[in-house]
Amino acid sequence: MRGARELREEVGLQVPATSLRVVCEPHHRDEFKRDSCHFVEMELDTEPQLVLDQREVVWARWMDVETALRLPLMPVVRAYLEDAARQRGLVPSCPPP
Question: Which pTM was predicted?
Fold first, then answer.
């Protein structure tokens, strides 16, 4: 799975491709461009240290869904996180910005 390679190359996280579950692959338009996103999920027992490539990823941190939804996000990412929160029975404590 390409997601495992991307995780290794961009944030230094080495995981077996079989540990990733494809959630959705939406196509969307944003800022006059067409784009495809690939959302995958995996379960982790601990938060591994990330080593950013400083090219495609210059900032990253682990956070819960509520915290993430307070950030300015692309609409497709916000929709994914809101759906994930609903499926897990989590309700964001504040409305999106």
Answer: 0.76
